[in-house]
Write a structure and sequence with these properties.
Low-confidence stretches: none
Order of helices and strands: HHHHHHHHHH
Radius of gyration: 19 Å
Structural class: mainly alpha
Number of domains: 2
Number of strands: 0
Mean pLDDT: 84
Largest sheet: none
């Protein structure tokens, strides 16, 4: 099973937040952090939920693999939970960031390399992901403009959904890691294989 490093992803997200201006409202900051500057409220909440999910994933790995570091992990989980529970999208980011203190960042710095020792995959470069995403978008465009004689309508709709799923998974890589990308590719291949058999 492919495992991503949730502590590393959280660390990257919250390091960015320390560099942001405190006078911005929370919604604007989160839109920037999750990579959707023009997100609807629903899209924003969906991506924010992925950040919350990272804390749960980190906690599970630490409990199973590094029980001696559970106190540090619990501290991080409590601070991130407090951030999400207390903030309002219209409130100031500065008010919300009081929950992500130096201890939170330090503990994430400690947990990230520990978790990495249990992971046997390396992260693809941003350039590689961008290149793959461009190819996916080109294929998607070809499918969308294809004549109805090229594909059965149901196959065309399915392929559009699957390629859009891959595209979104790449967009969300910094929040969800490789697993959703691989799942989208596998689902497409499995379904295609099943249909051919």
């Amino acid at each position: 099973m492919l495992i991503d490093n949730p502590a590393a992803m959280l660390l990257e997200i919250f390091k960015k937040t320390k560099e942001l201006k405190g006078d911005s409202n929370c919604a604007a900051v989160w839109k920037d952090l999750v990579g959707l500057p023009h997100a609807s409220s629903l899209e924003l909440l969906t991506r924010m939920a992925k950040v919350i999910e990272l804390t749960s994933q980190m906690q599970k790995i630490v409990k199973e693999e590094f029980p001696d570091q559970i106190d540090e992990c619990q501290y991080v989980v409590k601070r991130i939970s407090a951030l999400f529970i207390s903030q309002k999208n219209s409130s100031s980011w500065k008010d919300s960031m009081k929950f992500i203190d130096n201890h939170t960042i330090s503990y994430l710095n400690m947990l990230s390399p520990l978790i990495q020792t249990k992971i046997n995959n390396s992260s693809p470069s941003k350039d590689k992901l961008f290149s793959i995403q461009e190819k996916i978008r080109e294929i998607l465009e070809e499918i969308l403009i294809s004549d109805s004689t090229d594909f059965d309508d149901s196959i065309k709709k399915y392929l559009v959904r699957m390629f859009q799923r891959m595209d979104i998974a790449i967009d969300e890589y910094h929040l969800s890691g490789l697993s959703p990308i691989i799942e989208a590719v596998e689902a497409t291949i499995d379904h295609t294989t099943f249909d051919d058999g």
